[in-house]
Amino acid sequence: MQVGAYERQEFAEWHGEDLGGGVVLALVTLEARMPGSPASVRERWAFTSRLRDARVVGVKADGDLERARAEAERLAGETTGAAGAKVARPRPRTS
After folding, report:
1. Which of 55, 51, 53, 31 is nearest to 42 (CA)?
2. How would you class 25 by CB atoms within 10 Å of its CB: exposed for 0-12, middle for 13-18, buried for 19 or more?
3. Residue 63 and residue 76: Cα distance in Å, rounded?
């Protein structure tokens, strides 16, 4: 089945980590192949998801895994109090 520009695309590996404060970091390996090509593409991506009231309120993808982890940990720290209690800090909406 063709997916966008790729003939085949799949998440070959993934690891998810709950960082607290409604922040989840997923590190994934994407494998894909262009139509008519025997060669495969293999990329590593990080997806940072923010949850509020058991709903996803935002997802950010980043190809720089170290930068994504640092940002996810910063976000988790903003919403978790010093004693580990979760503190609700809604962010302003941007359109």
Report:
1. 31
2. buried
3. 20
At 24-40, the pLDDT tens digits run 999 999 999 988 888 89
CATH, residue 39: 3.10.450.50
Question: Amino acid letter at 67?
Answer: R
| Bridge partner list, 5 | none
The two tokens of residue 79 are 């919403």
The DSSP call for residue 90 is P
Q: Residue 41 domain-assigned?
A: yes
Range of the domain at 21: 8-78
Q: Does the global pTM surpass 0.85?
A: no
